[in-house]
């Protein structure tokens, strides 16, 4: 049938109620795929009918076939299907086709009840690029929290500088999911205009928002964030403390050394591990003795991080402890200790100067 471009008989295989309707769902899918491979526009009508097929896989295949035909109107209709998977597939298809007329229909799907459909609409709008930006910024003011959240996600992925100020306003949204999406989007944009809003967001009631704010402040690498991040090292949530420790390592400010040394005694191993890494990045010799002590931490990840940090510091005082760590029960710690000893040797090697004879 494909070879003969036999649209009529292929259509009969997928047309429910027709005497030729095939009861085998796999055969109907094959017929749908065949209709999608034809250039004959008469294939569109039976494919639209297949969007109502009793089998979900056939319905999704019909969306793919309509995408190959670039049947925009049919795909716009599919965005309103009762089938979540059809709506998702239609949103992805319209994004791939890249038609400007898809922007508003995809914007409408940002408030879909199904999260996968929302994300597919986000993906489609991101694929459409600059065509979507103004509409997405307007959607940040939607009364629907799903739409606001999805719009923020899309704007972050698009990386549009014009979205920075609108996204900053999202950090004050009443819904924490929306605020978190806005914080993540601003983190992707990495714009200094978000410095003060992120410092303020360290006090948000949502731990996810506070964690995202701490991560973003590390990326911004501005010293004004040092003291607020030090305060965040004492947050009640361990993920926030971990993010604050990591950010302080990125800022590499000596004011954070003693607070990070304190974090080496945190009750959560992930905080202690990141604190050790951060102290290595700051590279201040005040951390040598505390890091030597951390080589005896009960958790492998912490001991490994402490060994590597001591290598970064390059202080010979750590050599004896690192030699002992070569006998650690875990091979990762042994390897880290060996690397640290090598780093210390290299950093303390006497500099030889060539004598030039005139």
Would you kindly provide a written description of the structure presented here, covering whatever features stand out?
By secondary structure, this protein is mostly helical. 65% of the residues lie in helices and 0% in strands. The protein is built from 22 helices and no strands. The chain has helices at 7-14, 25-37, 44-50, 56-68, 72-78, 84-97, 103-108, 115-128, 133-139, 145-158, 164-170, 176-189, 195-201, 207-220, 226-232, 238-251, 257-263, 269-282, 288-294, 300-313, 319-325, 331-347. Helix 18 runs parallel beside helix 20 and helix 20 packs parallel to helix 22.
Structure summarized in a few sentences:
With 358 residues, the chain is mainly alpha-helical. The protein is built from 22 helices and no strands.
Largest sheet: none
Shape: elongated
Could you list the spans in which at least 5 consecutive residues all have pLDDT below 50?
1-5
**Between the first and last Cα atoms, what is the distance in angstroms?**
91 Å
Order of helices and strands: HHHHHHHHHHHHHHHHHHHHHH
The amount of helix comes to 55-70%
The gyration radius over C-alpha positions equals 29 Å
- What is the number of helices? 22
Multimer state: single chain
Number of DSSP-assigned strands: 0
As a percent range, the share of strand residues is under 5%
SS content category = mainly alpha
Based on the model shown, name its key terms:
single chain; 358 residues; elongated; disordered N terminus
Describe how the helices and strands are arranged:
Elements: H1 7-14, H2 25-37, H3 44-50, H4 56-68, H5 72-78, H6 84-97, H7 103-108, H8 115-128, H9 133-139, H10 145-158, H11 164-170, H12 176-189, H13 195-201, H14 207-220, H15 226-232, H16 238-251, H17 257-263, H18 269-282, H19 288-294, H20 300-313, H21 319-325, H22 331-347
Helix pairs in contact: 1-2, 2-4, 3-4, 4-6, 5-6, 6-8, 8-10, 9-10, 10-12, 11-12, 12-14, 13-14, 14-16, 15-16, 16-18, 17-18, 18-20, 19-20, 20-22, 21-22
